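Appendix B. One record, verbatim.
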Amino acid sequence: MNQAPQGPAVVVGVDGSAPSILALRWADALAPLFQTHIKAVTAWQFQIAFGTFTPVVWRPDEEARHICAEAVAKAFGGAPPEGLEMTIRQGPAAKVLIDESRNAPLVILGSRGHGGFEELLLGTVSAAVAEHAKCSVLIAHGTDLPAGISAIQGHGHAAK
């Protein structure tokens, strides 16, 4: 799962929110149509704090890695699709995902993220990626895949 397969991939913006987990399920259904694998991308950046604070050892890259791994586990019940690649990149989420779109046939995002890991995948990120991506973008809404997707796809993960 953590090895980097070669070639283009369906890119999924992952922040751990329910919409990003749905986006992973969409990718599982659509990646076979593109004959490629899934690349789950989690972006992180240092937050600037003002005022006094107690120094704490904080590893945002490790937190992002944990968020991505947990979302993948939730999306696929602990059995991710073959070739799934997790990518953790520093930078603003929209910029990271637009950069990733350069070598992708499709980017899939949840319609809204959550603020627990600020600006990882918010509605403004989805809008920016949809406008500036170098490939097609699917914005996943709702909580489940449409009923016909797993039948079209023909394998197990999408039905979860």
